[in-house]
Amino acid sequence: MALIAFSIQLLSAATLLLFSVRFLRIGVERLWSAKIRNRLGPGTSKGQLLLNGALLGFGMQGATVVALMAAGLGGAGTIPLLSATVLAIGADVGSAMAVVFLTLPISQLGPLAILIGGWMYLNVSDPRSRNIGRVILGLGLIFLSLTLIRAAVAPLSGFSGNAALLGYLQQDLVTVAIAGCIVTLVMHSSLAALLSAMAFAGPGGVEVATGLAFVLGCNVGSALLPIWLLRRSEDAGKIAIVAVAVLRVLLAGVFLLVLSAMPGVLSAVVDRPVDQAMLVGHLVFNTVLLALVPAAPVLVGALSARLSPPSRPSVPGPAVSDDPAFALAALKGMVNHMLSVLEAMLAEAMAPKLDPAEMARRETEMNEGLAKLRRAYAGLSDRRLSESVEVQGVVDYAIRVEACGDILSGTYARIRSEGASGLFELTPQGQQEIQDLAAEVFKGLHLAQSVFWSGDLDAAARLVQHKQDVTRQEEVSRRNHLGRVSTGNLTSLSSSNQHLELIAALKSINSKLATVGYAVLDTHGALRRSRLKNRFEVVTDGKA
Fold first, then answer.
1. What is the pLDDT of residues 465-477, one digit of tens each?
2. Residue by residue, what is the 3-state secondary structure of 309-326?
3. What is the three-class DSSP state of 529?
4. Which residue, 449, 434, 454, 398, is CA-closest to 507?
5. How confident is the model over 311-325, as a mean pLDDT?
6. C-beta of residue 306 within 8 angstroms of C-beta of residue 105
7. Cα(78)–Cα(418) distance, integer angstroms
8. Residue 191 Cα distances to 40, 107, 159, 301, angstroms
9. Domains of the chain: which residue ranges?
10. What are phi and psi of 527, to 5 degrees?
11. CA distances (Å), 290 to each of 58, 70, 84, 98, 359, in order?
């Protein structure tokens, strides 16, 4: 009976810890991750990538989500695979710093953080302030869960078989490391596994070498977890995850050999509690990992040559697990690639001489992307996840992006081909208006990519405003064209249908892309429905 009570207390405390970390992570992502993500690009230096990764890993209280995000960016071609690898390594360091922060002697502030954060989260209507309240409340809940874990494991120090069990484990450090790896994989969080183990080791009885071996196992588990979550992926971004895992596993192997060679020496030399030694060991391990960054280019190159299939699909397929955070990241990575394909299609559509074969190839690539996303969505075994608002919103937006591709490869490409064959001719004024409108659609596409990936509230408001500006620009072009027709301009008259169809197509594409802006604003409570016009309006400072 005592064992059942102990198991319930420990598992419930660990569950609260996992929930608290995820709760806090959502607030951090909405507040700050967009600014960091927007600074990521092909030209970002290794130092900046390490810093950005560390900030994301610390803020999100874990490196796994950041690693999956890096894999998605690398697979979509947003950043090189080497940059994705360096970003993931930086996240490991940030996650280690998060463990250090959570073990500082400030847990007494937990009840105050719950009080302040809970009040802000429940009573403040401003989206930014509410997310700050979410972060504070999440931090307070983390401190509370750690207190519960310590209380749950405290009776173990008086367990009659405790000495025999610890004596066996201290003679077999490999088994201890394997246990740390398994616990991390089961909990889906090295942070939770480490904090639970440190609470267990705190009362005493555990040798330093045993605690450090468990830390090494947690780091190996943390390296293998993203690979497991991406096990069905054919995305090139998986190479970055494998590269980081290889570096971490090799480093852990070296450290484990050193521990096995001198377990007693460590206990004699290290004159600090085992839980503190575990904390320092975790931080040292991930700091030493930074020294292996120069080896990343060679490793990524070797893995690319070995793991890349001879004939890779043009569109990477997302690996979707039933964990909401990971499933959403995988699906969003696929849509991000579709947006990149749409950008190439729009550039081809506006080229001086349109290439029908290239446009058809891009359209096929777009259709493949949507088909793979639908299969991934259909493969979700958790019905609650597949029916969640966020996941359905991603799928709906993918359908809109694919529809934009249909417009470009259909109506737009057909009219451009007719013009190239001499069936009609646009006036210089009309041609300039269409080019200007297309340039604005390009801006809208880039802004939509940023909003979709980051969920940034300010960027979403700019996207919605840009959509309204493009609508007005299309109206002005239509009036100008009809004005030219009314004056008897024969060129305008002969190309009237084509001009109107082209600007309508561009307006339609821009409107479909801007829907993600409305979705983000609605999520943050920054939209309201106008009773007079039956449309959504952006709320700024409490006013529409």
1. 999 999 999 999 8
2. CCCCCCCCCCCCCCCHHH
3. strand
4. 434
5. 47
6. no
7. 35
8. 25, 16, 26, 30
9. 2-307, 324-538
10. -125, 150
11. 16, 17, 14, 17, 44
425, 393 contact by CB (below 8 A) = no
> Rounded distance, CA 174 to CA 185, Å?
17
Q: Name every residue whose Cβ is closer than 8 Å to that of residue 291 and which is 6 or more positions away in sequence.
A: none
Q: What is the length of the chain? A: 544
Cα separation, 45 vs 48, in Å, equals 5
Angle (CA) 186-187-188 rounded to 5° is 90
- DSSP strand pairing (536-538 vs 527-529): antiparallel
Residue with tokens 């040798």: 207
- Helix%, strand%, coil% for the chain, nearest 5: 80, 0, 20
Q: Is residue 534 predicted with pLDDT exceeding 70? A: no
Average pLDDT of the segment spanning 11-37: 78
- Answer yes or no: are the C-beta atoms of 66 and 56 closer than 8 Å: yes
What rounded mean pLDDT belongs to the chain?
81
User: Which pLDDT value is given to residue 269?
Assistant: 64
Question: What are the two backbone dihedrals, phi and then psi, of residue 427, each rounded to the nearest 5 degrees?
Answer: -70, 155
pLDDT higher at 350 or 284: 284
492 within 8 A of 505, measured Cβ to Cβ: no
Nearest residue to 281 via CA among 150, 101, 100, 147: 100
Partner residues linked to 543 by β-bridges: 540
Q: Is 160 helix (H, G, I), strand (E, B) or coil?
A: coil
Q: H/E element holding 288?
A: helix 274-290
CB 88, CB 118: distance < 8 Å? no
440 Cβ neighbours under 8 A, 6+ residues apart:
466, 469, 470, 473, 510
Buried b (16+ CB within 10 A) or exposed e, 513-535: bbbbbbbbbebbebbeeeeeeee
Query: What is the longest distance spanned by two Cα atoms in the chain?
Result: 101
Assign 242 a pLDDT band (cuts: 50, 70, 90): very high
Inter-residue contact 127 to 457 (CB < 8 Å): yes
Other beta carbons less than 10 A from residue 32's beta carbon: 18
Cα–Cα dist 263/345, whole Å: 62
Question: With 60 as the cut, is the pLDDT of residue 533 above it?
Answer: no
Topology given in CATH for the domain delimited by 324-538? Methane Monooxygenase Hydroxylase; Chain G, domain 1 (1.20.58)
Q: How far apart are CA 256 and CA 261, in angstroms?
A: 9
pTM of the model: 0.62
Alpha-carbon distance of 113 to 88, in angstroms, equals: 30
* Residue % of the chain over a pLDDT of 70: 82
pLDDT at 174 over 70: yes
Question: Cα separation of 501 and 504, whole Å?
Answer: 5
> For 253-275, how does the pLDDT look when each residue is reduced to its tens digit (9 = 90+)?
999 998 888 766 666 667 778 88
- Tell me 108's DSSP state: G
